[in-house]
Amino acid sequence: MFKDLFKNWNTIPNWISFARIIMIPIFGVLFYKNEVVWAVFVLFLSGFSDFIDGKIARKFNQVSDLGKMLDPVADKLTQVTIAVLLYIKFNSSDVELVKTFSWIFLIFIVKEIVMVLFGAFMVAIGLRPSAAEIWGKASTFVFYAVMIFLFAFAPDVGAFNSLWTIPEALLVVLVAVSAILTVIAFVSYLPTTYKQFKEKYFSKK
């Protein structure tokens, strides 16, 4: 299985996914050093490259088994990093509502960690983690859009707070919508995953 995984791996979409993984520590260091404008730029670049790599793969017939795994791995690592950084930042905020609301980022962290660990378990027993369905793609798009918006304009975080700051109520709504979509996306993976287990272990010989 692992030998087949690297068949026809040298493609533009796969290199884009590698680049997205490399962007993660760059984004983290920039944010840690309070270079938020550059951190937002790197996050935007990561989100945009996530949008185009699938289109390139399909248009130029460069879909590969490795790409089907690399793309969600890059997504999950990026989302966990963003959620951890925002949880830490919001939890130390001077704005009481923002500080209280920081727990919601734990939803993103737990969901992605569970999916990574369970995906690794599936690969280990010879199954293949399900590809992103419509809800998975929608939740990823909304997550990137909302988080870029937060890094740009959220209280105590935004790189452009001098221009405008998100009202606290709007911040809560945006993050809550993204969290709800994340939970729906997680649930949407379950039927396909169950089907694979059923076919492998419970189907009649």
% residues in beta strands: under 5%
CATH class: Mainly Alpha
Described by the principal axes of the CA atoms, the overall outline is: globular
Instruction: Give the name of the CATH architecture.
Output: Up-down Bundle
> What's the average pLDDT?
80
User: Into how many domains do the coordinates divide?
Assistant: 1
End-to-end gap = 22 Å
Helix content: over 70%
Computed over alpha carbons, the radius of gyration is 18 Å
Please name the fourth-level CATH homologous superfamily. Answer: CDP-alcohol phosphotransferase transmembrane (TM) domain
Could you say what the CATH topology is called?
Four Helix Bundle (Hemerythrin (Met), subunit A)
Low-confidence stretches: none
Structural class: mainly alpha
Largest sheet: none
User: Total number of helical segments?
Assistant: 8
DSSP strand count: 0
* SSE run: HHHHHHHH
Break the fold down into its secondary structure elements and pairings.
Elements: H1 2-5, H2 12-32, H3 36-59, H4 65-91, H5 96-101, H6 105-124, H7 134-153, H8 168-202
Structure description:
The protein has 205 residues and is mainly α. It has one domain (2-200): CDP-alcohol phosphotransferase transmembrane (TM) domain (Four Helix Bundle (Hemerythrin (Met), subunit A), Up-down Bundle), CATH 1.20.120. The protein has 8 helices and no strands. It has helices at residues 2-5, 12-32, 36-59, 65-91, 96-101, 105-124, 134-153, 168-202. The model has no long low-confidence stretch (mean pLDDT 80).
